[in-house]
């Protein structure tokens, strides 16, 4: 288990694998005691011990997590039609005191230019989850 006190950030949950426009911002919080994902109204989408999470990072930067029988696909930024993060999510992110507005690791030039660093953001989450004990491939 990581000795880190926690990390929070806003990413986008792709509710449909086929329709990227059906993504919504979610607040992801990783603490030593668990992983929590909350929607725009701060309702819990996912809550689990990181060691119970399996997943992978696709070549396009989608972090696909599996908890039990449920699959969740997260991306670093939403589609042009995706809603913006809610004021509640922004306040909750500020209240955690350990959030980051963007990726900690720098992305490549193509990722920065075409994707706003979204793939780098998801690689950062991948590394943080792996350090917390998630079984990622």
User: Which strand order do you get reading across the main beta sheet?
Assistant: 4-3-2-1-7-6-5-8
Give the N-to-C terminal Cα separation: 18 Å
Number-wise, the strands total: 8
DSSP strand content: 25-35%
Structural class: alpha+beta
In round numbers, the mean pLDDT is: 84
Order of helices and strands: EEEEEEEHHHE
Shape: globular
pLDDT < 50 runs, ≥5 residues: 110-114
Which features characterize this protein?
alpha+beta; 3 helices; eight-stranded mixed β-sheet; 137 residues; 33% strand
In words, what does this structure look like?
- With 137 residues, the protein is of the alpha+beta class.
- The chain is 23% helix and 33% strand.
- The chain contains three helices and eight strands.
- It has helices spanning 87-96, 109-115, 118-131, and strands spanning 7-14, 23-31, 34-38, 44-48, 53-57, 63-67, 70-75, 135-136.
- The chain has an eight-stranded mixed β-sheet with strand order 4-3-2-1-7-6-5-8, with helices on both faces.
- A hairpin with a 2-residue loop joins β2 (23-31) and β3 (34-38).
- Residues 110-114 have low confidence and may be disordered.
Q: What topology emerges from the helices and strands here?
A:
Layout lengths: L6 E8 L8 E9 L2 E5 L5 E5 L4 E5 L5 E5 L2 E6 L11 H10 L12 H7 L2 H14 L3 E2 L1
Parallel strand pairs: 5-8
Antiparallel strand pairs: 1-2, 1-7, 2-3, 3-4, 5-6, 6-7
């Amino acid at each position: 288990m990581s000795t880190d006190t926690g990390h929070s950030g806003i990413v986008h949950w792709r509710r449909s694998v086929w329709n990227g426009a059906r993504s919504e911002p979610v607040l992801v919080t990783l603490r030593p005691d668990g992983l929590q994902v909350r929607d725009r109204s701060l309702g819990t989408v996912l809550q689990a011990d990181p060691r119970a999470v399996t997943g992978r990072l696709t070549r396009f930067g989608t972090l696909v997590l599996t908890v039990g029988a449920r699959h969740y696909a997260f991306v670093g930024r939403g589609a042009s039609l995706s809603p913006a993060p809610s004021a509640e999510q922004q306040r909750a992110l500020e209240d955690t005191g350990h959030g980051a507005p963007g990726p900690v690791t720098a992305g490549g030039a193509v990722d920065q230019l075409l994707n706003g660093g979204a793939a780098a953001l998801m690689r950062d989450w991948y590394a943080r989850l792996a350090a917390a004990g998630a079984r990622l491939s």
